[in-house]
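Entry 14. Structure prediction run on the chain below.
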Amino acid sequence: MSLEDRCRRELPYDFPMPNLLLATNNQGKVREFRELLAGCGWELVTPAAIGLALEVDETADTYAGNARLKAEAFARASGLTALADDSGLEIDALGGAPGLHSARYAGRDTTHADKMTLLLDALRDVPDERRTARFRAVIAIATGDGRLLLSEGICEGRISRAPRGAGGFGYDPIFLVGDGAFTMAEMDTAAKNRISHRARAAAAACDTLRTLHHDDAAGPAAARI
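Output returned:
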C-alpha cells in the first residue's frame, strides 16, 4: 500500500482543503514533502508562494526543539498551520556527529560536497563494520490555536567509502541503506519514500494532519488532539 493510500481518508465533499505552510526554504525538502504528504487532506504552500521571507535560527539542543522553533515562528508570521522538520546524520564512530550540526558541518556556507569530503576524511581509517550511522528526522506541526504535534522517523545504515548516485540531496550519496548495495542517492524517489527517516516521520505526521482536518470538518464539537 502506498504512503498516499495510507494517508487518504474520505472527507466531506464540500469541505475545502486547508492550507499547510511548509516552514522551509530548502527546495529539496519541499519536493520530498509534496510527495510524502500527498493525500493527507491539506493544500501545501511554501513561504515564497505567500510572500513570506523568514529565517529562523536553530538554537535548540534537540531536533524536536529546532523543529518547534521553525513551525511556531512560521505559524505566527502567517496565521496558518505550519509544518517544519529538523534532521541530521548521526555517525556512531564520530560519537553521533554531525547530528544537530549536519547542515552546518564544515561551515554554514560550504557545499554538500565539502561536507561529505570532510566526513569521509574523518572516517578514512574506520573499517566498514564500524561505519554504522542513521538519519533521524523530527517533524513539528504548529496549529493556529497553539497546539504543537511531533513525530519522529529513523533510517539505519552505514557510510560508504565514496559518494555514489545523483538523486536525493544532502548526505544521501554517502549513506548506504539495507544490505549496503545502494546509497540513498542511488534509489528512485518511490523507493526512498518508503524507507527514509523523513518518510517515516511524515507518515505519522500525515495521520495527525488527517485527524486535524476531520476535526475541523466535524466542527467545534469534535474531539481535539
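DSSP finds six helices and seven strands in the chain.
Filed with the rest of this week's runs.
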